[in-house]
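Batch job 17 of 40 flagged for manual review because the log was empty.
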Amino acid sequence: MTNHIIDGKQIASQVTEKVKERVERLKDQGVTPGLAVVLVGNNPASQTYVNNKTKTCERLGMYSVMIELEENISEEALLAHVEALNNDNKIHGILVQLPLPKQIDEDRVIAAISPLKDVDGFHPESVGKMMIGQQTFLSCTPFGIMKLLEYSDVEIAGKHAVIIGRSNIVGKPMGQLLLQKDATVTYCHSKTKDLHTFTKQADILVVATGHAKMIDANFIKEGAVVIDVGINRDENNKLCGDVDFASAQEVASKITPVPGGVGPMTIAMLMENTCLAAENTLNN
């Protein structure tokens, strides 16, 4: 099948170019968008993500601070850092890198971030507004996927979208955003029986299972658009997604690769959200 690989790097660079122009306009008005990233412990994957975020901020002319904290920090001490950032006028967006060590209640930390600075879109207020279609910060990965679909001219209205995964970070918000664009949405998860009977009906298949190469051509309808959210290591320690790319691309009409698909978009949307947060301070 002649298919189209959705190039997340290229689309992310188009998105960040627009953000860069907005940053310049903000600076002309005396505001430099500022992002604070809080990293607890030394998870190598988290450190890579955080470094990429910081580099992208610099490239776009934004202000960024990185707060690195010990793995054994207490919840109260972490919350005190968040509160200080809530009160810092130079900071428009706050991101606490997940996962957090087991002694810390992630929900409590997310709820402590000011909704005005919740550029990750995880705060209960942001999630509630997203559910009812109000203007808010959207969770960066699903927001990035919506942009990928838009830039790749994928029609959503009237299509059947199937999401594999129901996390608060990707699966749940992803389905809601597709629903708002008039897709018919089915959620599948680890307890779904006969998974392939659902996935074979999908015009748009979003895979966020956390299992390397779990979804191959046998799960995919001919001509479907396949979005792979996974990031894993295969048996040769090479980066791979939750989709078996080689077999899936034989049947998909459009497909995202790993790496270079969804990943770059997540960071691009974080920059867009931080820029929006800074713009909101001018409008309030």
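Reviewer: the log was empty due to a logging misconfiguration, but the result itself is present. The first strand starts at residue 4 and ends at 5. Unflagging and moving on to job 18.
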